[in-house]
Design a protein that fits this description.
By secondary structure, the protein is mostly helical. The chain contains 18 helices and 6 strands. It has a two-stranded antiparallel ribbon with strand order 1-2. Strand 1 and strand 2 form a beta hairpin. The longest helix is centred in the N-terminal third of the chain and has 37 residues.
């Protein structure tokens, strides 16, 4: 039972937040008249001494207590004597741990948002550095239409902006003070909870003591955000694995983010991408684990909630490793422009061939059938579609004229799509400006995530 009951190995990292909350609680007890000014001062100095002792330890090894809260309380009594026993007046470990966890999470979310923002910035900077490079765009992993490489990179940045919005919501939901809720029924002493919230930097206080000690919705929302970041990172990592393979050869990752084989000397394995892709599974698993813990809880605090922290800690720790590594990989990667250019098959312009007929007044469905017939005719003749003669094309549809061959230019194709979200050079500039604006908006008005603006390339 002692082994099952012990959470100190997990909640050890909360010691600084436990002391911070305890010092604020002592000030609250002083305002309520429970502690004299002298007593509150002695307890505050005692907690400062406990902080120094804990900071000097390398970890919880050898400590006999079951959790960090009892460690702090025991050390405080060692520092100030029986006076230390007054600190827990009106407070329960239920609202204490809920407060500690939220204090830790607010700091963690801010740091996490910074790491996500750094990856977005790296992707946007690399997009700027690849101006003019056209690559095949894919659907069903089949070449579809030509797109700028920058457009592909930015397609992996926008989901991360949505992740920043998730984290902003989780931060706002977390920014609620549960301290003063007691075990379940609130505090019987005249604690000014609004002053307590201001003291600890919370935006507001919980409005129901039962919900105050049992609410972990913010943690589930945070884990949803980390799971989605894991999914988005995994998708981008899959692109890097594919595009760095010899079959594609579009991307070359830097030596610092690849490894060789223990057997085959020619190998350059995209380990950074494979590891990032693999980590997504544990991030999704942590979300499922948290929801499973929460789904069956009856009213009030239940000890099942001891399981909340490990999942959150693990997900935040995982992204703290994955995101900087992937950001470094983006900074250091290069695109093989010649390989990308050779990979563009003329058939990716078949849609432009249909659009050509549409501009002459042909209904799109008829134009689509004609363009498909041109592709089949080229295949039958053993030619690329742009190698067919005008007579061969007119045999398919009389709407084709001498200027049809102007269609077979990927640059013209990309530039023809100049609407919002499109692929023209002007549309890409607008997209980069929109991305900078979205980053600023995702930062919010609270200053927790400063906006990051892309100022220039980091290399191609």
């Amino acid at each position: 039972m002692e082994a099952l009951n012990r959470s100190l190995d997990v909640d050890w990292r909360l010691w600084a937040h436990d002391i911070r909350g305890s010092r604020a609680w002592a000030r609250g007890l002083e305002r309520a008249g429970i502690l004299s000014r002298g007593e509150a001062r002695r307890i505050d100095l005692g907690l400062a001494a406990v902080a120094r002792r804990l900071e000097a330890l390398s970890g919880p090894e050898g400590l006999p207590e079951e959790d960090i809260h009892t460690v702090v309380e025991r050390m405080l009594i060692e520092e100030v004597g029986d006076l230390g026993g007054k600190l827990h007046t009106g407070r329960s470990r239920n609202d204490q741990v809920a407060t500690d966890f939220r204090l830790w999470a607010k700091d963690a979310i801010r740091a996490l948002r910074g790491r996500v923002a750094a990856l977005v910035e790296a992707l946007a900077a690399k997009a700027r550095a690849t101006t003019g490079v056209l690559m095949p765009g894919y659907t069903h992993l089949q070449q579809a239409q030509p797109v700028p490489a920058a457009h592909w990179l930015l397609s992996r940045a926008w989901p991360l902006v949505r992740d920043l919005e998730h984290y902003g919501a989780a931060l706002r939901e977390c920014d609620v003070l549960p301290l003063g809720s007691g075990a379940v029924a609130g505090c019987p002493f005249a604690i000014d909870r609004e002053a307590l919230a201001a003291d600890l930097g919370f935006a507001r206080v919980s409005r129901n003591s039962i919900d105050g000690v049992s609410d972990r919705d913010w943690a589930a929302r945070l884990l949803f955000g980390t799971a989605m970041t894991g999914v988005h990172v995994s998708q981008f990592a899959e692109d890097l694995v594919l595009f760095s393979s010899s079959e594609f050869g579009f991307v070359r990752l830097g030596d610092g983010h690849t490894t060789g084989s223990s057997l085959m000397p020619q190998k350059r394995n995209p380990d950074v991408a494979e590891l990032a892709r693999g980590k997504s599974g544990r991030l999704v698993g942590n979300l499922v684990g948290m929801l499973t813990v929460l789904k069956g809880l009856p009213t009030g605090y239940n000890r099942d909630l001891q399981e909340d922290k490990e999942a959150v800690f693990d997900s935040v720790d995982t992204l703290a490793v994955v995101l900087p590594a992937l950001t470094g990989a983006v900074d250091g990667m290069s695109l093989d422009r010649a390989r990308i250019s050779r990979a563009l098959r003329p058939e990716v312009l078949a849609t432009d061939l249909a659009d050509y007929l549409v501009r002459t007044g042909v209904p799109f469905r008829e134009a689509h059938r004609a363009a498909a017939a041109v592709v089949r005719a080229a295949e039958g003749a053993g030619k690329d579609i742009h190698r067919l003669t005008l007579e061969q094309m007119r045999a398919v549809h009389p709407g084709f004229s001498e200027d049809v061959f102007e269609v077979f230019d990927p640059v013209v194709s990309a530039e023809s799509r100049g609407g919002a979200g499109g692929t023209s050079a002007a549309a890409l500039e607008r997209q980069l400006a929109a991305l900078a604006g979205a980053m600023s908006e995702a930062g919010g008005d609270d200053g927790n995530t400063p906006p990051r603006l892309v100022t220039g390339p980091r290399g191609g």
